[in-house]
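To illustrate the input format used throughout this study, we show a single complete record. The first block contains the structure-token representation of the backbone; no residue identities are included at this stage. The design step must infer an amino acid for every position from geometry alone.
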């Protein structure tokens, strides 16, 4: 059935099934036009606080905690003392600190791995074993990497027990 068949010649606005009522005016109350300028809006039509918070959350979701932190601080500048912005800032600072700790841990593991390689190259089993022991403390428990290191440490223990190449021991490790 076409609209013309029921006597309607032009489309009628319908909101929530109510003919003649457009979205936002379902109550029948007159639409209010703001008399003052209200909060300043950005290009996207959002308050600077809201835009900064949304940008911060989007950056956080992407793992870009520095950008998120900048935006949450902008939001806080728009609304000093805002609990949501303060919590978001604290979270980002925590995430950034965790990232830095992880980078430092990875760098330390890489340096220790080089030391193990140097010790093994000259058959300094004591140094290699001590270095692997240190590496084990830096990897998460129950991880595949930790299991690999523990197994390797067992192999080094066999060489230590055999006192193989004892003249080379402690020639590579610092101290």
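Output of the design step:
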């Amino acid at each position: 059935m076409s609209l013309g068949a029921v006597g309607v010649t032009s489309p009628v606005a319908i909101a929530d099934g109510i003919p003649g009522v457009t979205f936002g005016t379902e109550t029948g109350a007159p639409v209010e036009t703001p008399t003052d300028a209200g909060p300043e809006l950005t290009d996207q039509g959002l308050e600077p606080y809201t835009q900064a918070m949304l940008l911060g959350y989007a950056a956080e979701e992407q793992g870009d905690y520095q950008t998120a932190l900048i935006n949450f601080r902008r939001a806080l500048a728009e609304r000093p003392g805002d609990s949501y912005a303060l919590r978001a800032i604290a979270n980002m600072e925590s995430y950034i600190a965790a990232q830095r700790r992880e980078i430092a841990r990875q760098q330390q593991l890489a340096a220790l791995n080089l030391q193990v390689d140097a010790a093994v190259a000259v058959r300094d089993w004591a140094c290699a074993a001590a270095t692997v022991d240190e590496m084990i403390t830096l990897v998460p428990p129950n991880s595949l990497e930790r299991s690999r290191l523990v197994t390797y440490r067992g192999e080094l223990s066999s060489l230590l027990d055999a006192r193989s190449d004892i003249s080379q021991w402690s020639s590579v490790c610092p101290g």
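Structural context for interpreting the output: Confidence is low (pLDDT under 50) at residues 1-25. The radius of gyration is 33 Å.
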